Amino acid sequence: MADPTPTPGIHHVTCIAGDPQRNLDFWVETLGLRLVKRSINQDDPSTYHFFFADAEGTPGTSMTFFPWSDLPQGNVGSGQVSRTAFRVPEGSLDYWEDRFDDYGVSYGDRVERFGETVLPFTDPDGLPIELVEVEIPADDPTVPWTEFVPEDAAIRGFHSATLWIADPQPTMELLETMGLERAGTEQSPDDTPGDERTRFAAGGPVGKYVDVLPTIEGGRQGHGTVHHVAFQTPTDEDQASMRSAARSRGLNPTQQIDRHWFRSVYFREHGGVLFELATSDPGYTSDEPLDDLGGRLVLPGTFEDRREEIEAGLPDVTVPRAATADAGD
Q1: Which residues contact 215 (CB under 8 A, 6 or more apart)?
Q2: Where would I find the H helices in 118-209?
Q3: Nearest-5° Cα angle at 77, 184 to 162
Q4: Which end of the chain is more exposed for a tag (fewer CB within 10 A), N or C?
Q5: What residue segments make up the domains of the chain, in order of their start?
Q6: Nearest CA-CA partner of 175 in 256, 115, 229
Q7: Which of 166, 92, 160 is nearest to 128 (CA)?
Q8: Has keyword Oxidoreductase (predicted)?
Q9: Which of 46-55, 138-147, 182-191 has the lowest mean pLDDT?
Q10: Given pLDDT bands bounded at 50, 70 and 90, which one contains residue 9?
Q11: How confident is the model at residue 326 (pLDDT cuts 50, 70, 90)?
Q12: pLDDT tens, 145-195?
């Protein structure tokens, strides 16, 4: 078969949280991302689905969460995305360390990785996250959201996702099939377990890196873990060719599923990580004006007919606003 259209990189990463209000407060106020969509888990409408991104919900910027409060605490292990990293402008890590001190965020020492400076930290559910200093080009597609964090420090989409895999070779071959190129390997004493990190690079400007680390450490899905990582397949044709490529490698991708803001295909790669392929359209502004993104509970498709029932089953939440935060100081 013909090679698939290479993915430009990560589209979104979806994680599991506990308390929904705490999740909103951290990702909007502390990290300064915009809530671009407030919705429900379409497979479990009793649970919220929050989408945090840049100012316009640009592909490659959205971190999403299912706040399943009744799940136990998870722990990261083999077959999971172990770290999700975001890009921040060069010279901004001092700002972030000061901000983390002010907000009581747990963070670690900076490390150097592939010539870049990385600041590791965790969110309130224990989710491992990193900020990576990079040069943001003038034509960068991301649009900083500056309600809580200034432009010269604002998060500018994904940098990378790190996969912990027991047998990395089939996963690495799959990434190459998806159009990522091996960009190098280095010893990583900051990572436990697994001390050899192999980096793969896609061709897009945002979310272009996937790192693979070997480990047999057991994990458990729950609060503070990644549910799945989605890769950009911008058009239906791109997605169909990538789906065929996954099948050719012995995987079992789903049929296309309409997720309202994008169309998706899912499969577990050889090491157990749940991958998604996501189209670029119709996007987050397909059902809300840009200025109003995240302003209301959006119920896609036939869920709108059940609004009263669904709203009654969801806890009340308040989206942080800068004016409200200032008034409370």
Answers
A1: 77, 78, 164, 165, 166, 193, 194
A2: 168-177
A3: 30
A4: C
A5: 10-327
A6: 229
A7: 160
A8: yes
A9: 182-191
A10: very high
A11: very low
A12: 999 999 999 999 999 999 999 999 999 999 999 999 999 999 876 555 567
> Which pairs from 194-198 meet CB under 8 Å and 24+ separation?
194/164, 197/113, 197/162, 198/168, 198/172
206 token code pair = 């945002």
- Give the angle subtended at the CA of 23 by the CAs of 288 and 74, to the nearest 5°: 125
* Percentage helix, strand, coil for the chain under 3-state DSSP, each rounded to 5: 20, 35, 45
Strand runs (DSSP E) across 54-190, as ranges?
Answer: 62-67, 80-89, 111-113, 116-122, 128-134, 158-165, 181-187
- Half-sphere exposure of residue 202, counting CA atoms within 13 Å on the CB side? 27
pTM over 0.90: yes
Q: What are phi and psi of 216, to 5 degrees?
A: -110, 10
At residue 239, what is the residue type?
Answer: Q
Residues 207-264 have pLDDT tens digits of 999 999 999 888 999 999 999 999 999 999 999 999 999 999 999 999 999 999 999 9
What pLDDT score does 193 carry?
Answer: 59
Cβ(46)–Cβ(313) under 8 Å?
Answer: yes
For strand 196-201 and strand 209-214, is the pairing parallel, antiparallel, or unpaired?
A: antiparallel
